[in-house]
Amino acid sequence: MVREQRLDPEVEVLWDDFHAEVNVPSEQLRQWLLTRGSGEEAFSPNPDLDLPEPGRQILAVLRKRKVDLTPEDIEVMREAVERIRELTAAKPSRGNADDEWRHSLLDLGHDVLVER
User: How far apart are CA 12 and CA 54, in angstroms?
Assistant: First the structure.
């Protein structure tokens, strides 16, 4: 018999908020981060370790089940939600055409072109 672990209600809400704000599938985020982090230097044998932060941490959380979250994961989720909301609230005058702004959000796993 499998027992469900009870999570703090705040973590439940944060989990939902995180998955609403991080709207890029994990494999698409990984590909984006690999592109952003490639630069001129070669990747190590484990390319996920070379991914830019905080994207690598966000990707790690996306790959977890809710019951497997660590306190560090919860902080990553909290910071990602906060940063995505700050950036979307500060939408530049050029809007979605502003590549720097849009790329900053993509680095966090949020694509402004995805319909909610």
Answer: 21
